[in-house]
Amino acid sequence: MADTTPYFELHIRPMFRPIDREHMRSRFDLWNYDAVKSNAANILTAVNQPAAFAMPTKAFGGPWPQGWVDVFQKWVNLGCPRLALSKGTYDVDRLADASVRLSVSVSLTNGAEDAWIDKGTSAQGTAEYTVYLRPAPNGEVKPPRTHNMVEELTSDVTIVALVDVDGRQEFPVPPAIA
Asked: Taking CA atoms, which of 13, 67, 114, 176 is between 20 and 30 Å from 27?
């Protein structure tokens, strides 16, 4: 991680488990970028306590390993970087077995960049994804390329929502063929 820039979506949010999120929800949401950024100093204080007092407590998984604390500190020192949103072309199909396939294609003008979709919290019947772009590491430049991603969804999905640089878009899933 020495030369890697830590990003909230890739490196910081995954350190907060669902149980951590639930325990802190009355104060702020550990999976929300703005909340974590504005509470970063308090989080650092909590995770830097001696083991007997550190958060999370031993009863709930124990304190963070020093490597995690170091990554969080680096993230704070770098100004709390986060990923940019990207834009792709999207296709939603119902397959013969009634499952749903989401296909996303992102054109990268710099082939050293990377893109992916991240599944978010979804309401019943809706699958929600965010389309992210990770900048090229260390200013690296490669020829343009297209990055294709496919996600298989369960048959109960009726709407696929994608959040990209243009906002939230909803795609109705075609009905199952009887």
From this structure: 67
- Map out the domains of the chain as residue ranges: 8-77, 84-172
Pairing of strands 159-164, 126-134: parallel
List Cα–Cα distances, 65 to 15, 46, 125, 134, 166, in angstroms.
Answer: 10, 13, 38, 26, 38
For 66, the enclosing helix (H) or strand (E) is helix 66-77
3-state helix, strand, coil split of the chain in percent (to 5) is 25, 30, 45
The CA distance from 64 to 138, in Å, is 28
pLDDT digits (tens, 9 = 90+) for 70-109: 999 999 999 999 999 999 999 999 999 999 999 999 999 9
Task: Map residue 105 onto helix, strand or coil.
Answer: strand
The pTM for the full model equals 0.81
Task: With CA atoms as reference, report the closest residue to 33 among 83, 77, 70.
Answer: 83
